[in-house]
User: What shape does this take?
Amino acid sequence: MKWKQFYHGWLIEIIPMPKGYLFQCWMPDEKTGFSDRQIYPTFVQAFTAAKKRADLEAVSLIIIRFLNQYHQWCNLSFDEYKALEKSIFNFVQQASRTQMQNSSALLIENQILCFYKNTTSQIQIIRISNIAHSYFEQVVFPGEQMLFEAFPQAELEIHMDSTTGATLTNKILCSNLQVYG
Assistant: This one.
């Protein structure tokens, strides 16, 4: 069964395969998408690769959009514009190949895949702040489900809005939120 989650405007699908997991990323219309067609041994590796590729694609689209809107304002000739556009596409292709070659290093120092669902009727802010050199914060709407990576010893803080501001309502050890499979 496919697993789906939105990430920075992209719909990420993780598809179980006989020897691992494949990712596909789609624009919200689900007509424009991409995949590196690589089978990753674990769900976490496929999800991490999908997020990195989605970030790369999003940045390239923003730069191309900027070029389209402002190439005349920047006094770029048509040839300069086309050369920059080609350079951006080449960079994305090279970075994608490099990511595929480094896929064995995608698991970062014992991080685990965690699942959280906001089962309340209020907007929550979840945060991990007890790990040095690592910070995570996300707004989670009622009923929203999300996956994230964290160290097992990290504590997920759940904050809810109150009359005096956001109030810490719960702390959950991330090892208790780990996804197995």
Remarks:
- The radius of gyration is 19 Å.
- The longest strand covers residues 165-173.
- The mean pLDDT is 83.
- The CA atoms of residues 62 and 68 lie 10 Å apart.
